[in-house]
Specification:
about 190 residues; alpha/beta; Rossmann fold; 5-stranded parallel β-sheet; about 40% helix; binds adenosine-5'-diphosphate; binds guanosine-5'-monophosphate
Length: about 190
Amino acid sequence: MSLKNKGKCVIFSAPSGAGKTTIVHHLLKQNIGLEFSVSACSREPRPGETDGRDYHFLGIDKFKENIANNEFVEWEEVYTNNFYGTLKAEMERIWSEGKVVVFDVDVIGGLNLKKQFQDDAFALFVQPPSYEELEKRLRGRSTETEEKINQRMEKARKELAFASEFDTVLINDNLEEACNKAKSLVTDFLTQ
Ligand code: ADP
Ligand code: 5GP
């Protein structure tokens, strides 16, 4: 891979509903030189989501064209017919501004990025306090159909098994404590 201006990155992965987006949003507000990597995806925007802010909503044809043109650092079919990936251009842009790239990606994508960026990457696994609480949060968010919730819960069982492969496991039970811990872990990594 030939990314220019190579800098550091922080990777947040978790089963869907564990709270990683909530924690990442909190961290991004702390003014510690982080910038969110906006992923590309093939799905349609949900109500309230904006193109270029939440995702680059490419649609399936354009997404596949970008795969063929080798424009992704990593990409994955996270759910059947739902593709997600990080564009090389997105990382280049953030690093060229002298900032640290922050990822919110699924578990396999997170491990893939860690493998590529090694010591320049800090990979956190956000763990829910229990499987039952994960389901409760996913339902409470009210963004998925029953079928999608079941799909995500099934995937979560497999994903929880990968926690020990990350640099650190961040338990998200009390949100405020998890946010404070995330900030202190990331600050330590950036000052190493
Ligand atoms: P993810 O990005 O991992 O899919 P979200 O950040 O969207 O998860 O969180 C899923 C839901 O759980 C949201 O409704 C969020 O407000 C809620 N949530 C996040 N962290 C906690 C927590 N510590 N306690 C209770 N609810 C939480
Ligand atoms: P959602 O459809 O709920 O926004 O996201 C579905 C899943 O895709 C989440 O687990 C999210 O972390 C993951 N995801 C988002 N962007 C990327 C990416 O660029 N690469 C990978 N591998 N997963 C991603």
